[in-house]
Amino acid sequence: MKLVYFAWLKERIGTAEEVVAPPAGVDTVSALLEWLRGRGPNYALALANPAVIRVAVNLEYRKGDWPIRPDDEIAIFPPVTGG
Amino acid sequence: MISIRVQADDFDPGTELALVAPGDLGVGGVASFIGLVRDFGPSSAMTLEHYPGMTERQLQAIAEDAAGRWPLAGVRIVHRFGRLAPGDRIVFAAAASAHRKAAFEACEFLVDWLKTKAPFWKLEESGGQRAWVEAKEADDAAAQRWRVD
């Protein structure tokens, strides 16, 4: 699945996007975040505070138990500051 | 009736206002908002990052939400991205209706909603420092008052 990152989250992880293949069982938004935290210290730092993480799956805000599939585009970013 | 644009270029507010509900003689009022970059220190510059695809989709959803809550003849949003300087225009949002109450309320709703949902992120640079703007609780509170669920 394709992951895209924005703002300071992107800077802390160190890449704007990547393709990942999480193991079976990592099939919800919250499971994905947990799995990502374990990938390295940059991920753990970027994703340390759940209160400032937002997730979009295929351009729609999703969270918690929302299921994720291998062909999804999943964006992870801080609370928005447009306008 | 609904027009959404996300672009790097500047826009002309007069032109956009004239296009909210052009030629609709049932419109009695057009309410609008322009967001601007404020000065925040020496050599200020602001860069707006965004998520192409999701920005347009979210702004369209916000406009449709407004049109479902108020009797609107037109909704128009233009949101810029990229590098901006103090005084530059960031966003235009407007709503047209037969009467002013719906136009004013819908316009405020559009701005409150887009500030918590539209995927843009502001990076401020000033005096050699750079910092990502943090989302404000006040913005969440403003959006919260429009919730019906």
3D structure, described in words:
The complex is a heterodimer of chains A (83) and B (149). Chain A is α+β, with helices and mostly antiparallel strands and 83 residues long. Chain A is 27% helix and 22% strand. Chain A has a five-stranded mixed beta sheet. The longest helix of chain A is centred in the middle third of the chain and has 9 residues, at 29-37. By secondary structure, chain B is α+β, with helices and mostly antiparallel strands. In chain B, 32% of the residues lie in helices and 35% in strands. Chain B is built from four helices and eight strands. Chain B has helices spanning 13-18, 54-69, 100-117, 137-144, and strands at residues 2-7, 29-36, 45-50, 72-80, 82-84, 89-97, 120-126, 129-132. Chain B has a four-stranded mixed beta sheet. In chain B, strands 5-3-7-8 form a four-stranded antiparallel beta sheet, with no helix packed on it. The longest helix of chain B has 18 residues, at 100-117. The model of chain B has no long low-confidence stretch (mean pLDDT 95). The interface between A and B is medium-sized, with 17 and 28 residues.
